[in-house]
Amino acid sequence: MASHGLGKEQSIQEMIAKSRNKKGKKFIEKLMPIILVITALISVLTTIGIVFTLIFETFEFFQRVSITDYLFGKEWLPFSGSEPLYGILPLVLGTLKVSVIAAMVAVPLGIAAAIYLSEYASDKTRRTIKPILEVLAGVPTIVYGFFALSFVTPLLQQLIPSLKIFNALSPGIVVGIMILPMIASLSEDAMSSVPNSIREGALALGATKLEVAIKVVLPAALSGIIASVVLAVSRAIGETMIVSLAGGATPTFDLDVTGSIQTMTAYIVQVSSGDAGYGTTIYYSIYAVGFTLFVFTLIMNLLAQYISKRFREEY
After folding, report:
1. Nearest to 166 by CA among 79, 257, 77
2. pTM as predicted
3. S-S: 61 plus which of 139, 210, 229, 288, CB 3.0-4.6 Å?
4. Which keywords annotate this record (predicted)?
């Protein structure tokens, strides 16, 4: 009887403990959605605040400068004492020069690395190489900038004697090296998601391993690969320190990649360093250029989403 009473007492204690645990779990279950909603709202509200700041300050800029002159002007001379000119096209062209060169470097190398990691490398090799490759993404961009200025530019000058110290070619190549891990990693993930049954079917039909990689796996993973390329190029468009250090500060409306250029981000850095007083037209031009850059990046991200949905293959 005593043991029966002891067992009954223990079971009651266990029931009380379970009841308390259930109450604690229910409280956490109710609390967590509230915390998650708050964190999501902070992100959304921060984004909205940034966008509205850009819009309001850009509107103030266009109160002083004609929007037509800004969008179609071919000269960017904001510091000209007599008649400042705010034509955005030289900055846009400088940004595109660097981005196109970066894409020409990163896309073939990144996709080649993805093909090797996905189709040829063993699991052990993949686990070793992929983290090392992704370390490039963690290198500070200012280090890349000094690398472009002090190593890549002198190296290129031996091949191209007319290349100036500040140019579009050197930062373009280094930006390409910087975005290469993004293309390689995301493309490899897309290619690895292709079912092995498709590879085995192609091999059974007599295709070589290279043919399987190029003609079967690559088209099957096309949506992920294109999305990775678009996202990487949008990252190149928004790059700041590399182009500021190695590109120069001369906005020019031409296709020459051997001379000094200025990108949209480099101009923002130049003015933000103290060259313009608060409330001046030059000060508000930072926001106009920033808003233009924001639109570029937004378009690139929307394009990546569209391509990803349009060409997605579901297995």
Report:
1. 257
2. 0.81
3. 288
4. Cell membrane, Membrane, Phosphate transport, Transmembrane, Transmembrane helix, Transport
